[in-house]
Amino acid sequence: MIRALAPLAIFLLIGIAFAVGLTKDPNVLTSELIDKAVPAFALTDLLDETKILTEDITKGQVSLVNVFGSWCVACRAEHPVLMKLSARKQINIIGIDWRDERAKGQAWLAKHGNPYSAVIFDDESVLAIKLGITGAPETFVTDKNGQIRYKHTGVITPDVWTQTLRPIALQLEAE
Amino acid sequence: MKHFIISLCAALAFVFSASAQTSNTELEMQARDIGQSLRCVVCQNQSINESDAPLADDMRKLIRKQLGAGKSKAEIINYMQDNYGDFVLLKPPVQSNTYILWFGPFLLLALLLIWFIRAAGASKAEDTLQDKES
User: A41 in contact with B at a CB cutoff of 8 Å?
Assistant: First the structure.
């Protein structure tokens, strides 16, 4: 009896292994930075070369820290959502213009609108590597103490905002 | 004469760039060594040495910068691991969640060997039994 069931058991084990392994999205890495402070950095403001921004800009209020670039097609799709959030003053949004040229980044924001309270210019991935970024768009939710509490990989759609990010933001706001 | 000057300049430029390279050879070797053990998080099955992804390029630059600042291989790899997790290491570390990965194949091999030996023993016993009967 046990002998007859052995192939079935092996098949089930392999089936479970594949069911778990093949349905994971390999592009979504769990962030190492959850519940850690935004790493220290000192980079220029995209819109003002002489202004140095540091991790302090994430302190004091709940924010979305959004990685984008003028070269990033998906960011273009996400942009109207961020514009709406900022117009309705739903949350503070900080931008990281990643691997971009300053002029192109500025032109992109001039053309499509600027939803960011500040834009960090990170052309050499200095902050991106500290944040463990693998692509754009990626968005972190930070709390009032400047701690990273959540990471979203990919485009923020209206659904992602209402179902995932907004509840987290509200919860952090209440802390 | 003009050709001579041009070729001389080219030769000199080549010599100078070559000598600049030799002074950095050791650092470069270390950088490649580190790059070889780190996974490009964009093209996930390539090391950052092999990848053409812009992020891998920036990681290569960062490694050279940190080596130049006197950081060791372990420090740089730890830095990457802190930011990107174990996934960034092409060789997974031996730890509780990777035991099955590291030791599973040996366990399977041992189990199969045991099964094989027992099966062989059983058929042999059967053979001798048949021999006796015949």
Answer: no
The CATH number of B1-93 is 1.10.8.640
- pTM, whole model, 2 decimals? 0.78
All residues of chain A having their beta carbon less than 8 Å from the beta carbon of residue B55 are 99, 125, 128-129, 133-135
Residues of A in contact with B85 (CB under 8 A): 29-32, 132
Note whether A26 contacts B44, CB cutoff 8 Å.
yes
- For residue A35, the distance in angstroms to the closest alpha carbon of chain B comes to 13
Domains: count for chain A: 1
**pLDDT, tens digit, 9 for 90 and up, residues A60-89:** 999 999 999 999 999 999 999 999 999 999
Return d(Cα B58, Cα A130) in angstroms, integer. 12
pLDDT of residue A22: 86
Q: State ipTM.
A: 0.79
Which residues span the domain enclosing A85? Answer: 27-174
